[in-house]
Write a structure and sequence with these properties.
single chain; 625 residues; mainly beta; five-stranded mixed β-sheet; four-stranded antiparallel β-sheet; 40 strands; 33% strand; globular
Amino acid sequence: MKINKIKLALGLVAGLSVAMPMIASAAADQEKAMANADNWAAPRGNYSNQAYSTLSQINQGNVKNLKAAWTFNTGVNRGHEGSPVVVGNMMYVHTAFPNNVYALDLNDNQKIVWSYFPKQDPSVQAVLCCDNVNRGLGYGDGKIILNQNDGMVVALDAKTGKKIWDVRNVDPKVGATNTNAPHVIKDKILTGCSGAEFGVRCFMAAYNLKDGSLAWKAYSTGPDAEVLIGKDFNKDTPLYSALSVYEDVNGGNKQGGSFKKIDTAKLKGGEKDLGLKTWLKPQAVKDGWQHGGGSVWGWYPYDPKTNLVYYGTGNPSVWNPDVRPGDNKWSMTVFARDLNTGMARWGMQMTPHDEWDYDGINEVILFDNGGKTYAWHHDRNGFAYTWQADNGVLVAAEKVHPFVNWATDVDMKSGVPNKLATASTHQDYNAKGVCPAALGTKDQQPASYSPKTGLIYSPLNHVCMTYEPVESKYVAGQPWVGATLTMFAGPDGVMGGFGAYDPMTNKKVWYNKEKFSAWGGSLNTASDLVFYGTLDRWFKALDAKTGKELWKFQVGSGVIGNAFTYTNGGKQHVGVLSGIGGWAGVAMNLGLTNPTDALGAAGGYAELTKYNAAPGGGALTVFTL
């Protein structure tokens, strides 16, 4: 993630063939709740990450009659991402820093049954990248799980709010924080790590739901033993475990060098310890990989058939690519790991030697087609990827919009993009007109999938940039970005959109323009509706088949939260958190006006001040017929 405020620059080893294990499910209550469509018991509804609900009381014929049923002000004025958790008559609502939690009784006019107010050091805010966000809560084994921004994972009694246990996941003193929603899967809690812009070496960690003890930790960089890569890793896709072949990986001149088309015949595959070997000739700190970034703060699906969990890793540290020549594995990678052991079944790096901060953290969505399960991912680099979920074989990789100009296409054997030298970035050279901007064609705002239409529905950013890497020295706990940039609307003249895609080809089915980035996560329902929110305060419902707008309502602040739905009192409700923020809105929240502030967001999203009061006020708005 990225950060800025005035003084900040945005500032185990043996492989295995996975078979379905016989494990106890400590979260049986969660699985039962997820099976009931009246609930919203996981960050994206259920294990698949589809954000699809079989509820259909609100449909295309009556959605025009949706009215605001109730609102809840969180009392926190910063960006509000994610969504509440709903189980039975209880709704659990989280806030941005200081990460307060409220338990509301839906059967008693949203009465506050209990609340939890963490005691966090205010200085944590200085190392939070891209606003003081928190992406939600986990539920299971009678517990509500909270990731505090200061790195504490906390288990609260779902009935009383009493703290049951807590454990430290990261240390903010070195710039590491937590912003992701904890994902309760079986008897584990999965959580990641933010802090690539502070030179943190990040990871995915699994804690035991019962007592918070560490089950396993898989780093994004370093030796195979610490990345949890064994002998069977990528056994069906050996070219993923290879060094990329470029004519000039680090550029021979300030105009970008000359890159050859990837020749897969030259790739051997199966190399060991690529998390070490692909960090060449370090100039900045130690061996590079030891402060290599690879943040993990997205949304993680799980496939019970194979016991695999999926997630993406973020950008390598530092943003200046010249000080870290090589592929910089395993940043920018989608991994599939065994839930019990953390061992990686497969992994594909989408942007080797990232030169633009194209984090790979965006969600993975699982869906079935023709008797097989597939994994879909809209990467920030502007390409949408589909893999066979069990073995990682790449099925489709396409640009989500023609304005993407840093690469021509993706080699389907190796997964390596064919870069264009015209978009390459180098120290003290201002690369102009690079598309997309560093915040990608989609940031954290998760897409959704409808099994009825067979389509993916994705919010989009439509933003380009200038990008100039600069010298930056590593100091523990201090920003370590090493680049300045400006952002501006893409060639269509708008900054956002919302589109439907066929995930088996990743070809566009329909696409609607938005004035600003669509920064809210989407929701699909069985009545062929899709809901999402926008930065200029709109909450919308569209026809999932055509994209036609059927209803909209303007809430109190820009939406960077995720749409969700549930049933109470026999009536379906749809809701969304509002509260402008995130990377797009942090400059407005902090009163930053220099075009390069917030790593370009201040200039690119300056017009947001006409649509939002600053700082953004956090609130939940719930609608019903």
